[in-house]
Amino acid sequence: MLERITTLSVNRIIQHHNKMNYREILINIVKEYLNLTDLVVLDDSTMLIDVGADELDIVEIAMGIEDETNIDIFWDGNNDMEYNEMMKLTFGDIIKLMERG
Predict the structure, then answer these.
(1) Around 80, how many Cα atoms within 13 Å sit in the side-chain half-sphere?
(2) Binning pLDDT at 50, 70 and 90, where does residue 38 land?
(3) CA-CA distance, 5 to 91, in Å (whole number)?
């Protein structure tokens, strides 16, 4: 019983730690793919298209997220996200999708 509780506790800590790092992971990936400087402010309401991302950039950013985290943000378990939905994503939206994992 104690071993099971310990394993559950460790898993919760890891999940919490991962969620806290999603923002940092996302910002690093976006800055890398779009060649942004640290002066660019990226908050939850910032849309990818607001910082210069086009359709291909968004797909590449999603692939970068999947490479870093093993999370496919464009797959909801049933369907791929529609193109028009991808273009409206904010950083907050992407972090929520990453947390949903």
Answers:
(1) 5
(2) confident
(3) 34
